[in-house]
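Morning!

This is the sequence you dropped in the shared folder:
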Amino acid sequence: MRKIIILVCFAFVFLTTPSRAAEEYGWRFAATTTDIFIARPFTFAATILGGALWAVALPITLPTRTGREAFDALVRQPWELTVDRELGDFAD
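The structure's back. Tokens below.
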């Protein structure tokens, strides 16, 4: 079973990586791949953890009227990095 899984993984990597696209786009291809498999899952996790942290901090931020700023920093910004950013765009 383990050999089959390894074989399927290798086949997936070699058959889905268009060599022409890698030659033509170079770093753009690498940046897009890195964004899909590494950056997006981490920014999504940061959104979820930020939401939990914002909920815990809410009793402190409401009396000081800084709840909106805390929400923007902990939830909205990671969400925008996850959803609104173009694939492979790490400029900001």
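Headline: Residues 27-83 form one domain.

More detail when I'm at my desk.
O.
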